[in-house]
Amino acid sequence: MTSPRLVPPSSLSAVRAIRHGRSTANLAFAEAERTGATDLPVSGVDRDVPLSRSGIDQARALGRWWSHLPPGHQPDLVVCSPYERAMRTWQEMARTAADVVDVETVVDERLRDREMGVYELYTPAALRARSPEEADRRERVGEWHYRPPGGEAMTDVAVRVGQFLTDLDRAAQGRSVLIVAHDAIVIALRHVLGGIGAVAPGRLPPVPNASVSTWENRGGRLALTSWGDTRHLTRPTTPTKETPHR
């Protein structure tokens, strides 16, 4: 007989998690998938990948979303990934909502994206072209458990996210928290907040760029109330002019 999940109590009033706006790597990976290219579409290191022009527009749309939150429903603490694309997303949000945003902001290393080790910034096609045996292992093991050499499985990400949530619950009692990070972090949040007995996903649920996922305190426990919400991105926006990126 299977017991129901055991969801631990939480002192937090709400947690919202945002995936950063569309990055230059997101665009390059999508184009590589469309064309079947096997070269490496992005140079440099993952933590320095910037937002694209459309990603900046998405971040500003998130700022307008923040501006329209009812009084008393706006987060009073922001915790951000140290990666460039997440930091820039929050910066553009804050600038756009400058008339209403006056919130404590901290950066936590545990909210960094999943580390892919020696295969950092490899597309699936590039991995298969260069290391077909490794690509086969990735498919065989499944994305939740696959750990690239020198990198992390999603199980590893979930461990550090769980430690982060434990510290957050102790340090921010009663507060409404906004997390600005990455799809891997949002997925790990969903798993950890699902409690003891939460089943690891066979396939990772999609987390759109600039989406908002929300957990609200219901009876002393955080419950998922929305996942991957992007309705704020459909409102009319003024396109951003492209600026040089490193």
From TrEMBL:
Keywords: Glycolysis, Isomerase. Signal peptide: none annotated. One of its GO terms (biological process) is glycolytic process. It is an enzyme of class 5 (isomerase). Its EC number is 5.4.2.11. It comes from Streptomyces violaceoruber. It holds the Pfam family His_Phos_1. Belongs to the phosphoglycerate mutase family. BPG-dependent PGAM subfamily. This is phosphoglycerate mutase (2,3-diphosphoglycerate-dependent). GO terms for molecular function: phosphoglycerate mutase activity.
